[in-house]
Fold this sequence. Notes:
- It contains 6 helices and 7 strands.
- β5, α5 and β6 form a beta-alpha-beta unit.
- Helices cover 48% and strands 13% of the residues.
Amino acid sequence: MFLTLTAVGVVVLSVLVVTRIKLKRDRQELELHSISPEALHMLLTSDQGTLLFDVRQPLDLLGHSAIIPGAKWIPPQELLKNPSLIPQEKDSVVYCTCPGDKTSRAVLHQAQAMHFLRVKFLKGGLAAWKAKGYPVEPYNQPFHLDSAT
């Protein structure tokens, strides 16, 4: 009985250690491939040719039609199907409004899988940008709620 409990304890402890290591590695990877609103603002004002892509879902764009000046909106479904919409040879930043930057990270991972190494995501997305008081402008271009059509 004691041996069984010890074995179960070792297995549980091993799972916890492996999980903690994976979470730490994921956090480090995110830090490496993210940019703060302050750093992005400095890049954009210094005009270093960084491209900016708004990858919000169409419904999110409908609900909050402000966009960072200079950003190009691309529906995430289109970008996930065709990551070459982001030029591989230029520094690019993607952002969304998802909790935890879910859409931005999905786009980032897809781009990395295709060896796009110059893509980052905006930490905190549009909300973090606006919270710092940085400029936004209305998005007035027509779009479909179902971006697949």
